Amino acid sequence: MKKLLFVLALCMQALYASAQIYPVRAELTDKNSFTMILIPDPQSYTKFDANQPLFELQTAWIANSIPSLNIKAALCTGDLVEQNEIRIPDGVNGNQTSNEQWKAASRAFERLDGKLPYVLCTGNHDYGYEKSENRLTHFPDYFPSERNSCWRNTLVEVGLDSKGIPTLENAAYQFETDTWGKILVLSLEFAPRDEAIEWAKKVIEKEKYANHKVILLTHSFLDYKGERFIKEDYKVTPANYAEAIWQKLVYPSKNICLVVCGHECNITDNEHNVSFRTDKNKDGKNIPQMMFNAQTADGQWFGNGGDCWLRIMEFMPNGKTIKIKTFSPLFALSPSSADKAWRTASYDQFDIVIE
Fold first, then answer.
1. Which end of the chain is more exposed for a tag (fewer CB within 10 A), N or C?
2. Is 278 helix (H, G, I), strand (E, B) or coil?
3. pTM, whole model, 2 decimals?
4. Where are the domains of the chain?
5. What's the CATH fold of domain 34-353?
6. 325: closest CA among 299, 295, 303, 352?
7. What is the pLDDT, as a whole number, of residue 22?
8. What are the beta bridge partners of residue 313?
């Protein structure tokens, strides 16, 4: 008996030696669940050098939590950088050149390369010079399809960019699960062109994806009131905004079951940086739409980037319920801040039911 206890003690020591001990640990509600982790717009982490380690903290926490939370993927809502193409930062809205910002975003996701598939969509700040004056972007330079070995088993479709080149600006990723069947995560470029929407329609209408549950990940869709954008003030053209995406792609679709976005940002309380709504599609099914952003969570546009807030999306074994929880690995690191690691208001902790 003593020998058995000694062996168990050694095993526990080995376990703790390989995993950091957080005062607060996120756990599954049901051991048969799996999760996807939602990373909101990281632009304010990358635009300041002092904030960049916080972005890496998020992805490092995700990498460390893959076994315990049975993580299938990480999803990022776009705006990986503050400015896509600048040489001289103003020191106020960032002290990093665009090249330094893209390198920081790339470095953060290196934590997941070879460990976990991640799905990125492009935001308005990822195009043009500062924010979508045109379709110029360095996204494909830093995130080519060969980059993450995990994509070899999940990346199933790639669309063309505005120059006719296949890039991950428009892409689809397949995940096979025991309880939810096959899930297709479709990533769509910011303010997508008609060609991008047509590509997305053709993908999800393919017979081999007919029974997939499709999650649409796009940067801009809902504002903080839960209303879809009709038009936004960007020079990029041609472009479709949220209501057009709904009418042309989501509403007529038979298998898009969830829309996820970021983008909306207000220097106010957390409630005004998140939103949720449901609408019936052409077949009368309720389609949940969720917006989550956190870049001004500390109450400042030029702050720390978002207090490391993430959303844990737990896919319950019943195949229809997703439990949403909002968590910060930054606050969870220390006993002095552990009581702030969860946001538990009704708009930050709720269930999504997929019909």
1. N
2. strand
3. 0.94
4. 34-353
5. Purple Acid Phosphatase; chain A, domain 2 (3.60.21)
6. 352
7. 83
8. 36, 324
